[in-house]
Write a structure and sequence with these properties.
The structure holds two protein chains of two kinds. By secondary structure, chain A is an alpha/beta fold. Chain A has two domains: about 180 residues, Rossmann fold, CATH 3.40.50; about 45 residues, no CATH class. Chain A contains nine helices and nine strands. In chain A, strands 5-6-7-3-8-9 form a six-stranded mixed beta sheet, with helices on both faces. A three-stranded antiparallel beta sheet of chain A has the order 2-1-4. The longest helix of chain B is centred in the middle third of the chain and has 37 residues. Classes of the chains: A alpha/beta, B mainly alpha.
Chain lengths: ~240, ~230
């Protein structure tokens, strides 16, 4: 159990050029399991994750962690839908967060080497990260996020555009991270993945939390017609 | 045409026989220009990185002015540096006028905006790519700047080479602040100007060819050392 949680979101919203993108959102998240954020395109999943992470400006309301904000920011990591590769080798990419935290270079590189092996990139340590395949880039991004042992990991559609095998490998890494105590909050379009990973589901629609419930309850007995339609694969307006 | 051919052959013999005066002038040109380049890069590149990652009120105006200064007239720079370093000027006490140091100062003023502007273009593009990642990692401004400077090092080499090209070919400012004194501040460009004035076109041309060869050689050496244009590199 992380001391960052529970996370209390009260009336949180973010805007761009006067237009509200997400919110107002009221939500409480506890410190256990994996929270999966789902919703149709444009429902605000990415912006919601960025808002919680502090990467999107809070235009109104409040996001309150159970620890000082600086500590909460320090203990988080974010994996983007399109992973950003530093123009460095695989090893140096993974070691980067540790180096930025002042870890000795040799120690950081050794830890990075171990993480690369854990995610299946052990054989390409000196390869330029920018030339990796999509699945390899996503695994690198995961290793780079997890090497600093975050208490909370945000993942924005981490398996978008990946094939089944790459998805299974990513999910395996995520399950290990969750088992070792990292709280995951991830957005996905893949209902199969949501069912496999979620312990709690947040269903977003038009930038607001339409429904939030334990995974079993949500998937077996969705409360709203929109959530039912979404789970059935219907178009939700 | 005769002067051109004569210049080429004279340049060839000057180089082959390692003419003492040519070697001295060439070495001085190289020393002054590379010194100015190193110091200007040390100023311009962190400045470019700062402008890429930091948002402040006058940032756009600052960048616009910096870009405009790329076309700074060297003669005006030379004149200003001359006034500042002359005996009655604020830095006259340092006794730098008509020394290689004064020439380096003038060259730095000329090439800092050029290097900073070109470097800023590259770093701004890289910052757009890295922005979300580095923000999410909660790194400090200084760490962001260091990351950009390191990861864009090959693009920055181009900026440095542009600065080198401008500095090695510079004549107006260094003629004013250096004085073109034999065995002291005479460099290839000022020597060319002097020989042209004396009507020694062949010698002036030969010095010109040596200058071009020197510039190309340094560019190639830096490219080779920087390992640019190689497969699998950034």
């Amino acid at each position: 159990m992380s001391d960052m949680f529970p996370l209390k979101v009260t009336g949180a919203e973010t805007t761009r050029r006067g237009k509200r993108l997400v919110g107002p959102i009221d939500l409480t998240l506890d410190g256990q399991g994996t929270c999966v954020v789902i919703g149709p395109n444009g429902s605000g999943k990415t912006t919601f994750l960025r808002l919680l992470h502090g990467a999107a400006r809070l235009a109104g309301g409040e996001i309150r962690w159970s620890c000082p904000l600086e500590d909460a920011r320090h203990d988080q990591a974010f994996v983007f839908q399109s992973p950003v590769m530093l123009r460095r080798s695989v090893l140096d990419n993974i070691a980067y967060p540790l180096l930025m935290r002042g870890t000795a270079r040799a120690e950081a590189r050794e830890a990075a080497s171990n993480w690369a092996a854990r995610v299946g990139l052990g054989g390409m340590l000196s390869r330029a990260a920018t030339v990796l395949s999509g699945g390899e880039k996503q695994k690198l991004a995961l290793a780079r996020a997890l090497i600093a042992e975050p208490k909370l990991l945000f993942l924005d559609e981490p398996c978008a555009a990946l094939d089944g095998r790459a998805m299974r490998e990513i999910e395996s890494i995520l399950s290990q991270a969750a088992a070792s105590g990292t709280r995951l909050i991830l957005s996905t379009h893949d209902m199969g993945q949501a069912r496999r990973l979620a312990s709690r589901v947040v269903f977003l629609l038009h930038g607001k939390v339409h429904e939030a419930a334990a995974a079993e309850q949500f998937f077996d007995h969705p409360e709203t017609p929109q959530a039912r339609a979404f789970l059935n694969g219907d178009i939700v307006e | 045409m005769g002067d051109l051919w004569s210049g080429l052959t004279q340049a060839f013999w000057l180089v082959v026989t390692l003419d003492k005066e040519l070697v001295e002038i060439s070495w001085r040109s190289l020393r002054i220009t590379l010194s100015a380049l190193v110091l200007a890069s040390a100023i311009a590149m962190p400045l470019a990185a700062f402008l890429a990652v930091r948002r402040f009120r006058a940032r756009r105006a600052f960048i616009a002015v910096m870009n405009a200064l790329m076309g700074l007239p060297p003669v005006v720079v030379g004149l200003v540096v001359y006034v500042l370093l002359s005996r009655s000027g604020p830095f006259g006490v340092l006794g730098l006028l008509f020394t290689p140091t004064a020439m380096i100062i003038a060259q730095i003023i000329i090439i800092v905006p050029l290097i900073a502007s070109i470097a800023h273009q590259s770093l701004r593009d890289l910052w757009q790519e890295y922005h979300d990642l580095l923000i999410s990692m909660n790194v400090t401004q200084w760490q962001k700047m260091k990351t950009l400077l390191w990861d864009a090092r090959r693009a920055l080499l181009t900026a440095a080479l542009a600065g080198f090209g401008r500095a090695i070919g510079e004549v107006g400012a260094i003629m004013i602040v250096g004085g073109n004194i034999d065995h002291a501040t005479r460099v290839l460009t000022t020597a060319i100007a002097l020989e042209t004035g004396k009507g020694n076109f062949a010698l002036a041309l030969s010095l010109g060819f040596v200058l071009i060869a020197l510039a190309v050689a340094v560019n190639l050496a830096i490219h080779w050392l920087g390992r640019t244009e190689r497969e699998g590199r950034w």
